User: What shape does this take?
Amino acid sequence: MYSEPGTGTTFRLYLPRVVDEVASAEERPSAQLLGGRGETVLAVEDNAALRRVVVRQLSELGYRVLEAENAAEAIGVMERHGVDLLLADVVMPGGTDGVELASQVQER
Assistant: This one.
């Protein structure tokens, strides 16, 4: 990952080369997504459009989803509701990033 303020971020993902023949999609058994069973996920994302997508997708998979725009709001939501899983953006405004938020959540 390379990031430069004002320019943007570049992610490069290097995967191993496949030497064996790969089965076509028709030959592979269909993968079944495992959905949630009502577990509560707290989605923390400062981009409202992205947060809506994440909330919708997790809800469709059977999770109860709470949302917050930043770390301070997330802590408030957690204090009012039980949360089974935290899904947080790493870079957020407000002085507390996703890594720090995760540490605070673990302490609570």
The chain has a mean pLDDT of 87. The chain has three helices and five strands. Residues 26 and 52 are 33 Å apart (CA to CA). The beta strands are 2-4, 8-10, 40-44, 64-68, 85-88.
